[in-house]
Amino acid sequence: MVAAGIQLLALLLACAVSTAETGQSFNLKMWRKEDQPVQQQFSQVNEEIERLKYYQAVMKQKQEDMNQAIMHCAQMQAPRDEEVNVTTLQEGSNTLPYPFSHEDKDPEEDNDGVLDPCYHYSVLDQPWRATNFSTKNVACDQKVQWKGWYRLFYRGKTIQMPERCVKMEMCGTHAPLWLVGGHPRIRDGIVTRKVCGHWNRNCCAFKSPPIQVKACKGNFYVYKFVKPQACHLAYCADINTLVCGRCKKDEICNSRDKINWFCKKSKRRVKAKVHFFASYPGSLQGKVNRIQFSKVYVNVGGAFNSRTGVFTAPVTGVYQFFFSTQSATNGAKTDLWLVINGYWVALSHTRVSSPNSLGNLSTYMTSLRKGALVYVTHNCGYSWANSVSNTITFGGSLLLVQR
């Protein structure tokens, strides 16, 4: 019985493959029980099944690619009429949001292997969605089969959702939908925003289900639209934001009243690198108002002056400093102070009660304004060092730039 079943399955596979759209045919061997062991026969049948699945997947992918190319070509050749058939659009035809792949860069994936919506979205270019469009024929986005992410256009130019209440009977519908909470920044990633519909003098008479939004490089946004809760509601495209599509790479689109938009230079964060480390190549005794750390090992940013021993903050920010000493006087105390703008702020203290040597390292973190002066003073005692010991030292780094 097992051998007969295997023979029948092999025969069906041979027929299926020979008639597949791949145009290829395969001759499967008819096994008999006395020819090969049953386990080997099962293994060979499984191999043929997996091969068939592979060719079916290849043909399916080729068909999908062809359909997408045809739809894209049709869109590029379609005329952009002033009049839009709102009745057809509100029925949710599959030609409403046509597929589009952002080709400026290669597709990117996040840590979970999900495609970045900034490079994988559908274009939504319908002039009736503009905030200055009114019509007697109203649209309803509840009838649209929303799927995936969308980028808004107006006659081929990028546009974005309004961030303020829109008048009733605009955007080709009764209750226009606008974005509550504003658009995110690029570093915010994907965010969730509330959507409101204006009706009967109430800007949020309809609290539509929230949508997801993401800011993309190039001054545009992508939206993951969902069906509104009722008809007739439709997502708006703010005609005033057309200027945002003309912003350069080093500019951002800004508005004070959410009506008049303009491009302005973006304020890039200063990435200053400041690190220094220096030592005093000799011993100190008694009071030294300012130690001149003349042996400099690191001075990234050039903010430390080896001739004066003074560090000058090049930018406003958070800094961390350290300074050290090696005391070697029996029974005497040795004090080193970190001085910022004339104020003694941190102490390095040692007292040796026996004929031994004792070292001490102190650290201090603070916020400084640009131009602040920092140095170390030897107030009293005895500090030992030579040209190679690096026991009397002073150093620091800029941790964070502040505006």
What structural category arises from helix and sheet content?
Answer: alpha+beta
Q: Which whole number gives the mean pLDDT? A: 78
Please bin the fraction of helical residues: 10-25%
Work out the helix count.
3
The total tally of domains equals: 3
- Count of DSSP strands: 23
The multimeric state of the shown protein is single chain
Low-confidence blocks of residues: 1-6, 8-31, 76-107
Biggest sheet features: 5 strands, mixed
* Overall morphology: elongated
Enumerate the strands of the largest sheet in spatial order, edge to edge or round the barrel.
Answer: 8-7-6-5-9
Describe the protein.
- 15% of the residues lie in helices and 35% in strands.
- The chain is of the alpha+beta class.
- It folds into three domains: 2-74; 85-265, no CATH class; 275-401, Jelly Rolls, CATH 2.60.120.40.
- Strands 8-7-6-5-9 form a five-stranded mixed beta sheet, with no helix packed on it.
- Helix 1 (2-18) runs parallel beside helix 2 (38-77).
In short:
This protein is an alpha+beta fold and 403 residues long. The protein has three helices and 23 strands. The protein folds into three domains: 73 residues; 181 residues, no CATH class; 127 residues, Sandwich (Jelly Rolls).
How would you summarize the topology of this molecule?
Blueprint: H1 2-18, H2 38-77, H3 86-89, E1 99-101, E2 120-125, E3 150-154, E4 157-158, E5 175-180, E6 190-199, E7 202-216, E8 220-224, E9 233-235, E10 251-255, E11 261-265, E12 275-279, E13 284-285, E14 295-300, E15 304-305, E16 310-312, E17 317-327, E18 333-340, E19 343-351, E20 358-368, E21 373-380, E22 382-383, E23 393-401
Parallel strand pairs: 2-3, 5-9
Antiparallel strand pairs: 1-2, 3-4, 5-6, 6-7, 7-8, 10-11, 12-14, 12-23, 13-22, 15-16, 16-21, 17-20, 17-23, 18-19, 18-21
Helix pairs in contact: 1-2
